[in-house]
């Protein structure tokens, strides 16, 4: 149910490093964190609840949620990237903790363990989505809520379009990952089907237009490399990456990707319940 590409793969976890993690902590504040706050508003955390943040990154949103559930509640943030968990652990408090983990293995948690779980800007990284949803369903209490916020299939992305053009050229096309995709977006209908198949009752599944000022190609490149934990260009030999960055930025600018042109995108926000 992901985008139809001839070659699709899970993103590599090996490209991340301490510099990219610190970069993500900084650049995600105005994007993922802000959209995450809107998701959490709909998920409606209550004092005393136990919450699971899946794909917590550097912990900005989990820290925010910990303030909402209060001292009697608990928030656990998991992420498969140790460098990001290291930064998140700077935010720990009595009701907030982090650990390395991912959506494909929630076996350490018993059935009906959490009141709510959420994935903010995470769902599109899951090449296979059914097993994570089944596991989340199992660990939620009856009446528990799942919140998902993710970009919708078909969103235009000038920088990724420029990337595809550049990586099709010599010498970049010699590297196999140039022809794969690690982003697996779904449509609203596919989201509904996936959640229903996993056993959830749908509360709301909406697609919303978002308009934000278009960052410069240079700023977008910085964000893309950090938010993709190095998967944007990490498959290239280190000696080729700087050259590829320059060519992609030039290509994006020639296609009209400038701060003067706002970027329109669609976001799916889903809230589902365990009956």
Describe the structure.
It is a single chain. The chain is α/β, with parallel strands linked by helices and 275 residues long. Helices cover 35% and strands 21% of the residues. It has one domain (18-273): Rossmann fold (3-Layer(aba) Sandwich). The chain contains 9 helices and 7 strands; from the N terminus they run ααβαβαββαβααβααβ. A 7-stranded mixed β-sheet has the order 3-2-1-4-5-7-6. The longest helix has 17 residues, at 238-254.
Helix content: 25-40%
> In terms of structural class, how would the helical and strand content be classed?
alpha/beta
CATH topology description: Rossmann fold
Instruction: Return the CATH architecture.
Output: 3-Layer(aba) Sandwich
Number of domains: 1
Largest sheet: 7 strands, mixed
| Mean pLDDT reading | 92
Number of strands: 7
CATH class: Alpha Beta
Q: Ends: how far apart?
A: 24 Å
Q: Please tell me how large the radius of gyration is.
A: 19 Å
CATH superfamily: Vaccinia Virus protein VP39
Shape: globular
Largest beta sheet: strand ordering? 3-2-1-4-5-7-6
Order of helices and strands: HHEHEHEEHEHHEHHE
The proportion of strand residues reads 15-25%
Low-confidence stretches: 1-6
Number of helices: 9
Question: Summed up, what is this model?
Answer:
The protein has 275 residues and is α/β, with parallel strands linked by helices.
Name a few traits of the molecule.
alpha/beta; 7-stranded mixed sheet; 275 residues; 21% strand; Rossmann fold
Chain-wise SSE layout:
Elements lengths: L17 H10 L4 H12 L6 E5 L5 H10 L4 E6 L2 H7 L7 E5 L13 E7 L9 H10 E12 L6 H10 L20 H10 L3 E12 L4 H11 L10 H17 L8 E11 L2
Parallel strand pairs: 1-2, 1-4, 2-3, 4-5
Antiparallel strand pairs: 5-7, 6-7
Helix pairs in contact: 1-8, 2-3, 6-9
